[in-house]
Design goal:
PhzF family phenazine biosynthesis protein; globular; Phenazine_PhzF-like; Diaminopimelate Epimerase, Chain A, domain 1; 44% strand
Length: 287
């Protein structure tokens, strides 16, 4: 069985930046095991599989896999898959489409060269002590900012938000893989476990996402799902409306720009992230 696929760089202003994504079309007859094997073979942070396509109504159903497991929601795969569908698959390059992912439908719209998604309502879970992090990282207590809590947040995929007091602390960050993995297994509420470190300076936001997969410490170039969590977190604790750009991937040679446009009205979060995508390649995959 031969499947067409596309490769795009997401949250990238140019090729070979941002986060890589493979988008597999015509995947409705693949088993979950086959999708997982293909995601492991290409070994990008995530790959997507289009399992249902409705060209008449500009809708699609997709599944999202890391090399290790399936995701219920992930930002850069949704943005990148939307770019492929809007520019390569659907007729007339529509400005609005809908994607169905395991957590439900996601509305997508295009404005100029940015593709935007609207995230689900967030949930705010446990808060943690700074001291915990000094046991499995090189961070000192003085390296943490003091305005906001350290907290696990989810909009479909969960991450622990960890604010730092300087860009230098973020740049020099190092984790003990085994100790960090043990801490996450003990404290994170879902099987998807990630730490999202950030530094906020005025309207400048810098971030790094680290997790453990296949017993390896992995850093992501651009994490849309974590960005929706961070946007929700900042709307709750920082200010109820803002626009800014989240810079991620700088320290692994894949600079990324994730655009935030959020608003909190009462208890209702309007969480939107946007980004550009760059077309890299297309081909046929023998499944």
């Amino acid at each position: 069985m031969s499947l067409p696929f596309y490769i795009v760089d997401v949250f990238a202003d140019k090729k070979y930046a941002g986060n890589q994504l493979a988008v597999f079309m015509d995947a409705e007859n693949l088993s979950t095991e086959q999708m997982q094997q293909m995601a492991r073979e290409i070994n990008f942070a995530e790959s997507t599989f289009v399992t249902k396509l409705d060209k008449t109504n500009n809708k699609a159903e997709i599944r999202i896999f890391t090399p290790a497991h399936e995701m219920q929601f992930a930002g850069h795969p949704i943005i990148g898959t939307s770019w492929v569908l809007m520019n390569k698959i659907f007729d007339n390059s529509p400005n609005e489409i809908k994607l169905e992912v395991p957590i439900g439908p996601i509305a997508i719209n295009k404005s100029d060269d940015l593709i935007w998604l609207k995230a689900a309502q967030p949930k705010f879970w446990d808060t943690f002590s700074k001291i915990d992090f000094t046991f499995f990282s090189n961070l000192k207590v003085s390296d943490f900012e003091n305005q906001f809590p350290i907290q696990e947040v989810t909009t479909g995929s969960a991450f622990v938000m960890v604010g730092l007091s300087s860009k230098r602390a973020l740049e020099n960050l190092a984790l003990d893989k085994d100790k960090a993995d043990e801490w996450m297994k003990q404290h994170c509420k879902t099987d998807h476990r990630g730490l999202y470190f950030y530094y906020l300076e005025g309207e400048k936001l810098f971030s790094r996402m680290l997790c453990v997969e296949h017993n390896q410490l992995v850093e992501d170039a651009a994490t849309g799902s974590a960005s929706t969590c961070l946007q929700a977190f900042l709307l709750k604790y920082h200010k109820p409306e803002f626009e800014l750009t989240n810079h991620q991937g700088d320290y692994i040679g894949r600079p990324s720009e994730i655009y935030f446009n959020g608003k909190l009205s009462g208890d209702l979060f309007d969480i939107r992230i946007g980004g550009k995508a760059q077309f890299v390649a297309k081909g046929e995959w023998e499944a």
